[in-house]
Amino acid sequence: MKLLRRKEEPSLDSRLEALAEAATLAEGRLPGEAVAGARAVAERAGARRSLSVEHTVAALAGATGSGKSSLFNALAGADVAAVGVTRPTTSAAQAVVWDGPDKDGPDKDGADKDGANKDGANKDDADKDDGTGRGAGPLLDWLDVFGRHPAAGASPDFSGLILLDLPDHDSIQLAHRLEVDRLVELVDLLVWVLDPQKYADAALHERYLRPLAAHRDVMVVVLNQVDRLPPAAVDRCLRDLRRLLGEDGLHDVPVLATSARTGTGLDDVRSLLAGRVSDRRSWSARLSADVTTAADLLATASTRSGGLAGTAGDHGHPGDGASAATRDPSRASRAQGAETPVLEAGREAVRAAELPEAGAGDVAARLGWRLTVALEQAAGVPLVLEAVAKGHRHRAVVATGWPVTRWVRRLRPDPLRRLRIGAAPLPAGGVRGGPVTSGDDGQVVGRTSVPAASAVQQAQVDTAIRDVGDVAASGLPGPWAAAVRQAARARSRELADAVDRTVGVISSRATRRPRWWKAVGGLQWLIFAAMVAGAVWLGALFGLDYLQLPEPPVPTLGEVPWPTVLLVGGALAGVVVALLARLAAWVGGRRRARRTARALRAAIGEVGAAYVLQPVEAELDRYARFRAAVERARA
């Protein structure tokens, strides 16, 4: 019998790596706030894991007058936080720490047995030997909480608990609200203390509870001051509160009814806190929820319409607007008045946002042919191929023509050299400027003199490039589609020069001389020598006859003297060989033009792929890796 094993979920380490990878891949493509927020979450997770994981940081958060400070004192067993009618009462976060389980020797955070941190961060006298636990000092330093108090009595159930009393989230003081936002981002467990009068406050639900819906596993809701209501009203309030929480996406969050004044429900709160502390997993559950929220924000930012975020130049380089937040996420998240990453991510993210897959298929196979044809026309390839055929015939006549008349052909310009193909480059970059390139045979090839592309031809190239971007970007989210389109045209200004150099290099191969030209040229010179010998022989015979000297015997071919055979036969043979060589050159020129056309199409296709198609494919691959990383982070 085959046993089916449940698929293991990715670890927190792998999810953090995936989030950091997604943030890196999204740089320059998505808004800088989303990228900076994801990086801040990854950096904060690394900082929290380097501190004591034997401690659980639970924070009491609530509105003005909710009684959270009274509840804090009741749980601490001492009047640690000031309680009064003046609002706001709590101006800075305070901590009560129960000893950690290990008291022997320094812990992994480098603290001594008396709880003092080796780096000297704890400077309050209460931290020197107050029983706060050796791992609590560095952790509270990281939280920037300096009001620290030891618990009134040792409690094995609370061993490792750090309980914070936060300022009011609706305080009239901006600094208090910013402190709440900062610590809500960092603590392991959130205990929201509500009261019967303001438990439905829209500010609480819209600013905190709803954005933190992914953090339901590290959230507790306490309805305090129930002693002011009759039992039936308490039940109605709890049902209505659970309904509101359900609308916020917090269906399974524990909801407890307490009264700090009478002690009602305090045992339930203590039992719940003791269970979370003993479990030692609140910190990892918090980080896991942070990763999910940050990944959701990246997915939401991807699905929104718009161009590249903050780009101001070539693709893949974020512009000035996004660079500061992207390079320094801590500054973006900790700046006064700025939104904190997780809260902002929760407000902006749409958890149902799905990233579509990139278009399947090879971009070059689907779109390369049309681009290549447009580039060929713009580069004047038909004109070059005609010059290749004519130039082949021209050089063949010069090399194999009748020596008596071939010099006339030299007076005509070579069609390829008129286009500066196969010729030495002009100084300072050639006719139209630009670098020079070495051909396969070591010949230096500069810019050609092929006429520049017409407006219609350039428009055809631009249309082909735009079509490549549009087809490749079809189905992608807005920012990534914009990145693909920009990648298609990022190097379009370099394309004309690259194609021209390629035409020059490939076409220069057409200037190579076939071997038979040398053989036919040698034959022509032999025939010419025979004709000259016959002419000289006849001239000598004419001179002897003119001087009335005896003529030597003249051999004959049949009845025709050999001097005449050499002269007339050499002239006729030279003309016939020249005509046959010209016919062979015409056939060879057509064949060479066809070979050059194939080579040019392949080479121009490679240029189009390097300057247009490969950047598009790289951008599609980047999006595919981003999508996979986001899905791993959201798992």
What this model shows, in words?
With 635 residues, the protein is α/β, with parallel strands linked by helices. The protein has 21 helices and eleven strands. The protein has a seven-stranded mixed sheet with strand order 3-2-4-1-5-6-7, with helices on both faces. Helix 4 links the parallel strand 2 and strand 3. The longest helix is centred in the last third of the chain and has 73 residues. The two termini are 30 Å apart. About 13% of the residues have low confidence.
Strand order of the largest sheet: 3-2-4-1-5-6-7
Average pLDDT score:
79
Report the helical percentage: 40-55%
Number of helices: 21
Q: What proportion of the residues form beta strands (DSSP E)?
A: 5-15%
- Compute the CA-based radius of gyration: 43 Å
Structural class of the secondary structure composition?
alpha/beta
Low-confidence stretches: 101-133, 310-339, 424-444
| Biggest sheet details | 7 strands, mixed
What distance separates the N and C termini? 30 Å
Shape, per Cα inertia axes: rod-shaped
Total strands? 11
